[in-house]
Design brief:
Number of helices of chain A: 3
CATH topology of chain A: Helix Hairpins
Strand content of chain A: under 5%
Radius of gyration of chain B: 21 Å
Number of strands of chain A: 0
Oligomer: heterodimer
Order of helices and strands of chain A: HHH
Number of domains of chain A: 1
Structural class of chain B: mainly alpha
Number of domains of chain B: 2
Number of helices of chain B: 7
CATH class of chain A: Mainly Alpha
Radius of gyration of chain A: 17 Å
Shape of chain A: elongated
Largest sheet of chain A: none
Helix content of chain A: over 70%
CATH architecture of chain A: Orthogonal Bundle
Distance between the termini of chain A: 54 Å
Helix content of chain B: over 70%
Largest sheet of chain B: none
């Protein structure tokens, strides 16, 4: 693996795998959000790496800023759901989210 | 090993640490370290604006949100420590994935690199790009923030006496 970009993308794929693994094996909403955050970091690194590869860093930065804003909103909404779920069910299990219905 | 590769390696290790951490607070702090590593990588890619944004928002704001949530649910999570084996298996799974990826992905990435189109146009500053080419994104960001506020308001409605 001689090319630096190929090595970058190798690590990005590993980070994505770690986030995906966390989301797949965990039932805790908080750990799910941690996995989601890690996956979003991998996506962010993929965008900047592609931007650097195609000499389009300004566009990549603009897209990354949008990604970060969306990430914050998703995490805030997820944690609000977690707090509500914990207040009602005294649990952070994602399968108890059904109890919030209505 | 270059500084750039070292940063990627440290970020990957911190991500694995965030997933494997038994204590959620340590997991949240490791996640902040992942954000700091990502931010340093962005600086290394000559993307300072995105790096500062990442550092302030992801390593700062999101970590504070996570620590607040951890303080709320910590006791419940500690009681459910018996299912931690699947997180301790992560290094094994990651090592397996790393070996498989090492033998399969480089060829694919090489085709991506040779097939990519390099922009020949002059690089506009980020401000110009954001305000001209990506203006709908700004509207989308405002809409997302409004949607976030609406979601939180609807999850925690004001109680009438």
């Amino acid at each position: 693996m001689t090319n630096s970009f190929a090595l970058d993308w190798y690590f990005i794929a590993l980070i994505l795998f770690i986030g995906l693994y966390c989301m797949l094996v965990s039932r805790s909403l908080l750990r799910q959000l941690i996995g989601l955050e890690i996956m979003s970091k991998a996506g962010l690194l993929a965008v900047i790496s592609s931007g650097a590869l195609t000499s389009n860093l300004s566009l990549a930065q603009a897209v990354i800023i949008t990604m970060i804003v969306i990430e914050v909103v998703v995490v805030a909404a997820g944690l609000a759901l977690l707090a509500k779920n914990f207040r009602i069910n005294k649990s952070v299990d994602i399968w108890n989210l059904k109890g919030l219905k209505g | 090993m270059t500084y750039h590769t070292l940063l990627f390696l440290l970020t990957t290790i911190c991500a694995a640490g965030a997933v494997m951490a038994g204590d959620l607070l340590i997991g949240a702090i490791m996640l902040a370290l992942v954000s700091i590593g990502t931010s340093l990588i962005l600086f290394d890619f000559m993307a300072p604006l995105a790096a500062v944004f990442e550092l302030s928002v992801c390593a700062g704001l999101i970590t504070v949100l996570f620590v607040g949530a951890v303080s709320l649910v910590r006791q419940s999570e500690d009681a459910d420590a018996r299912g931690r084996v699947k997180f301790l298996v992560l290094p094994l799974a990651a090592a397996g994935a790393a070996i498989i990826l090492w033998f399969t992905l480089p060829g694919f990435f090489e085709t991506l690199i040779t097939g990519g189109t390099v922009s020949t146009a002059g690089q506009d500053p980020i401000g110009i790009t954001l305000w001209t080419a990506r203006r709908p994104d700004l509207l989308g960001q405002i809409a997302m923030l409004a949607a976030g506020v609406f979601v939180i308001k609807s999850i925690f409605p004001r109680r009438n006496k």
